[in-house]
Amino acid sequence: MVHLSAIALALAGVLPQLTQAAGLNTAAVAKGLLYFGSATDNPELTDSAYLTQLSNRDDFGQITPGNSQKWDATEPTQNTFSFTKGDVIADLASTNGQKLRCHNLVWHSQLPSWVSSGTWTNATLIAAMKNHITNVVTHYKGKCYAWDVVNEALNEDGSYRSSIFYTTIGEAYLPIAFAAAAAADPSVKLYYNDYNIESPGSKSTGAQKIVKLVQSYGAKIDGVGLQAHFIVGSTPSKSAQTTNLAAFTALGVEVAYTELDIRMTLPSTAALLAQQSTDYQDTVAACVANAKCVGVTIWDYTDKYSWVPSTFSGQGAACPWDDNLVKKPAYTGILNALGGSGSSTTTATTLATTTKATTTTTASSGSSTGVAHWGQCGGSGWTGGTTCASGYTCTYSNAWYSQCL
Ligand SMILES: O[C@@H]1[C@@H](O)[C@H](O[C@@H]2CO[C@@H](O[C@@H]3CO[C@@H](O)[C@H](O)[C@H]3O)[C@H](O)[C@H]2O)OC[C@H]1O
After folding, report:
1. Which of 175, 261, 295, 374 is the most exposed place for a label (fewest CB within 10 A)?
2. How far apart are alpha carbons 21 and 3 in whole angstroms?
3. Annotated catalytic, 259?
């Protein structure tokens, strides 16, 4: 069936178009992603210039709290919960009309000492973990697009990290955590999130085993978050990242780049900034190429507030905006991957189908073929529709069209 409304909307410019002027999020949505986003943190929000750019939905359609939803922030004392700082970020997302990625529930780091140094049995730690998850997820119910339920459970060789959770409970802590999160908010997407799982290898294989483990317990797992804390010049190729993403999505889960930044040894040079731009472009292009890659989040947008210099001695300049909130070449690299710096041609017949459309994009740097993730899923004329075709799930809709994955 031909949906003339999609053609009309596209021709009239109602659907997101790929133009020079489009920001990162606008271009990402036009390319079929759900969002392009940034992490942020409470102390930075007093910087009005920073806040203004963060709130610019043309660039950022999603934000993630960098620290304020972690266990040490939300349950510093057993069964005493504090949501004040996390609520500031959640409210900001709501005010700005941005999606919120919620981060994180179970992680070996930034734990309060009552957890990390407590005396636990299998039963008592399961109870404490479930109580934490239930309270935090319930508090933010309906506000998060996704939760990073378990963060960084793996060693580099793909074996389990010896966290308090693994050594006390064993691998069952993962499905137990996912099941508790699903019970508290059945609608929110539930993710496993880790670093160094962005190209094929032992750790990526370990993360795929976690997906299968959770599924084998009958618990819900919706996605895998690839942190993507990269180094300029050592970023995995687009090809390696594309192959890797496909291995995850073949398991029936979606994927997202959740903490992208690409650091360099300081001082930065023009050559390093150019390579950084290429590395950003390759990574975002890998996401665009996979129909189940829903978004990219950078781990703060400006070098001014990046976590990198305080964590990796002598390194920095990892973000697409510099210390003065001026865009770096990396910004253009991301936009190139999103088709934002060139022209885009999409055939009307492809647009009109209820299946995922294939978009051919001609960027200034060359030609590439990507997969558009959106589809006009129902209705007719200018009112559009919000019902997805059979076999598709509606992940976003507005008055004009639905996004169906
Ligand atoms: O002193 C601490 C300070 O060290 C802390 O820094 C944060 C550490 O976590 C960072 O985010 C993580 C980066 O990579 C992945 O491993 C994780 O998934 C992320 O959560 C965050 O950006 C830093 O700000 O902040 C609190 C201070 O008290």
Report:
1. 175
2. 28
3. yes
Domain covering 24-338 in this structure, CATH number: 3.20.20.80
Q: Is the four-CA dihedral 80, 103, 44, 25 of positive or negative sign?
A: negative
pLDDT tens digits, 297-353? 999 999 999 999 999 999 999 999 999 999 999 999 999 999 986 333 332 222 222
pLDDT digits (tens, 9 = 90+) for 65-116: 999 999 999 999 999 999 999 999 999 999 999 999 999 999 999 999 999 9
pLDDT of residue 267: 98
pTM of the model: 0.82
Question: Would you list the DSSP string of 208-239?
Answer: HHHHHHHHHTT----EEEE--EEETTTSPPHH
Whole-angstrom distance, CA of residue 32 vs CA of residue 288: 8
Q: How far is the CA of 18 from the centre of ligand 1 (A)?
A: 35
> Mean pLDDT, the chain, as a whole number?
85
Q: Which amino acid is at 374?
A: W
**CB of 69 closer than 6 A to ligand 1?**
no
Choose the catalytic residue: 152, 171, 198, 254. 152
Helix (H, G, I), strand (E, B) or coil at 253: coil
Which residue owns the Cα nearest ligand 1 atom 12? Answer: 66
Atom of ligand 1 nearest to the CA of 310: 4
Domain ranges of the chain: 24-338, 375-404
